[in-house]
Design brief:
Blueprint: E1 3-4, H1 8-18, E2 28-29, H2 32-39, H3 46-62, E3 84-85, H4 88-98, H5 106-116, E4 118-119, H6 125-134, H7 139-142, H8 147-154, H9 169-174, H10 177-190, H11 192-202, H12 208-216, H13 227-233, H14 239-250, H15 256-268, E5 269-272, E6 277-280, H16 288-292, H17 301-319, H18 324-330, H19 334-342, H20 347-361, H21 364-375, H22 392-398, H23 401-413, H24 422-429, H25 437-452, H26 459-471, H27 480-488, H28 497-516
Parallel strand pairs: 1-2, 3-4
Antiparallel strand pairs: 5-6
Helix pairs in contact: 1-3, 4-28, 10-11, 12-14, 13-14, 17-20, 19-21, 20-21, 21-22, 23-25, 24-26, 26-28, 27-28
InterPro entries: DUF5691
Pfam family, one: DUF5691
Protein name: DUF5691 domain-containing protein
Length: 523
């Protein structure tokens, strides 16, 4: 007898689970065309009838189904372009970069395009927007060269939301975190007061992570007008936000925080004029008012092992004290004070405190003196630093381009460093700006002298050879012919030949980029 059921699938599934060997398959008893069709399977073997029933019922359920109807979202058309497309010559350069020939030059291409007021052609916009998705550090450089089409295209893909233009306060409140960050950064560069007021309007709704990132942007255009807002941030529940607020306030020598800290610091550091030495008295405790200002009571174990807890307290005070305090009180130059600190038993605390203060306050004279002390007799870049912010690379990076060039020139002329010294190589390859012509010529002279007198490779030579491509990023392209002549003076079988060829290939490509944007041999 046939099984009565409201659902043919129930009988089919039950039979399949039980198996036709244990119980013969009984066709579902249903009416209509489907029932008539299934009844024709009654003379088939159990297994065949079951499989055919599955196919018939499945097909029956699909008959008459309509495709899903989705509403079509209306997309606004792109606005008229406000920038001219870059030249075909510049496009070819960008295509080569995207193809992997000179990927390290993408930021330079973007910078040249922005300076010349040109935009990326439409066909390369997806590739460029993807680069920005993958490499956050490129985003600020990408935005100026997208044009209206690029910004419109970014709005169509959530992965490119960082490039969606924010133009109103409503956009600020609803934009993605990455787009808001870039917008605030741009606004801060030309209207710091408006940027601060905009952030204040949503400050309480921001996440701790976003608050810290937004506050970091205040390093651009920092002034005493930001002081009340930063002082409020000292009481933030996030330790990272408090750390950034302290760092920013300590970067303003006339801030209330710096003035208050100075009163404490002068109790522990003084000049003994009779013997011309510094007197250091470590604090017995960290004053409660300093803790309220954001000073850290307990140092990290790595810091504690280098300077101790009391030394850490004094280091924090020194780093938030205006450097003019010491030069004015003691009537001494930074060079004289650094020399006294260098010979002191607490030199790590003193030098690192002065160095961090100089970095925060943008005092290049003090920065240079500290760096020069570390250059003397040093053969590598490794230092027993207390804080990451005080690494040699961080301090050199804090110098302006002109002063960094002058310092590197001194490296050759005053300190008589050779081109293959690890410290020299590191300082040259870590540059973030073009070298001056004078510095570049000193490097080329040092390179020629070394290449012509090197018969076998040492460890430092391997390091130098790998650095040559990076040197090509910083040599002014106007010196390309001089680099070519240097290569021509090498012996044909020189083991430096391939490296020099690579250096020249990259330098010539940079020259091609400059000319593609109508910049001749500039840069």
């Amino acid at each position: 007898m046939a099984l009565a059921t409201d659902s043919p699938w129930q009988a089919i599934v039950a039979a399949a689970l039980l198996g036709t060997e244990r119980q013969p398959f009984q066709l579902p008893n249903i009416s209509g065309n489907l029932g008539n069709c299934l009844s024709q399977l009654s003379d088939r073997p159990n297994e065949a009838a079951l499989l055919l029933a599955v196919g018939i019922v499945s097909l029956h359920q699909r008959v008459g189904w309509l495709p899903e109807v989705r509403s079509v979202t209306q997309v606004e058309s792109c606005s008229s372009e406000d920038l001219l497309r870059c030249s075909p010559r510049a496009v070819r350069c960008l295509q080569q970069i995207f193809e992997g020939q000179f990927p390290q030059l993408l930021s330079e291409w973007l910078e040249r395009a922005a300076i010349s007021g040109k935009r990326v052609p439409e066909i390369l916009l997806p590739s460029l927007l993807d680069k920005g998705r993958q490499q956050r550090e490129l985003r600020a450089a990408i935005l100026p060269v997208l044009g209206q089409r690029g910004r419109w295209l970014a709005a169509q893909n959530p992965d490119w939301s960082y490039a969606v233009a924010l133009t109103t306060e409503a956009d600020w409140e609803t934009g993605t975190p990455s787009a808001r960050l870039l917008y605030l950064q741009d606004l801060r560069s030309h209207n710091p007061d408006q940027a601060r007021e905009l952030l204040q309007s949503t400050w309480k709704q921001e996440t701790a992570s976003d608050r810290a990132k937004f506050l970091e942007i205040f390093r651009v255009g920092l002034s005493l007008a930001d002081e009340p807002f930063l002082e409020d941030a000292l009481g933030d529940r996030s330790k990272e936000v408090r750390r950034v607020a302290v760092d920013l306030l300590a970067s303003l020598p006339t801030s209330r925080l710096c003035q208050h800290v100075t009163e404490h610091t002068c109790r522990y550091l003084s000049l003994e004029r009779e013997v011309s030495s510094l007197h250091v008295q470590l604090p017995d405790h960290l004053d409660e008012t300093l803790i309220q200002l954001g000073f850290e009571l307990k140092p990290l174990s790595s810091i504690n092992s280098k300077v101790g807890e009391k030394g850490w307290w004094l280091l924090q005070m020194l780093s938030a004290t205006p450097l003019s305090t010491w030069t004015e009180q003691w009537q001494m130059s930074p060079q004289q004070i650094i020399k006294l600190a260098q010979s002191h038993e607490w030199q790590n605390v003193l030098l690192d405190g002065f160095a961090l203060a100089a970095k925060r306050q943008g005092n290049h004279e003090w920065l240079e003196e500290v760096i020069r002390v570390w250059f003397v007799g040093q053969t590598s870049i490794n230092r027993n630093v207390v804080l990451v912010d005080l690494s040699t690379e961080a301090l050199v990076e804090a110098l302006s381009g002109d002063r960094r060039n002058a310092l590197l020139i001194d490296l050759f002329q005053v300190f008589h460093r050779r081109i293959n010294d690890s410290l020299t190589i590191w300082l040259l390859r870590s540059s973030s700006q073009l070298w001056s012509v004078d510095l570049a010529r000193l490097v080329l002279d040092g390179l020629e002298e070394h290449l012509n007198h090197t018969k076998t490779f040492s460890n430092s030579d391997w390091e130098l050879r790998s650095a040559l491509k990076e040197f090509a990023r910083f040599i002014p392209v106007s010196l390309t012919s001089e680099v070519i002549r240097l290569r021509e003076r090498l012996a044909n079988d020189s083991h430096w030949m391939n490296s020099m060829n690579d250096l020249i290939a990259l330098l010539e490509f940079r020259k091609e980029m400059a000319q593609a944007f109508g910049m001749g041999d500039r840069g």
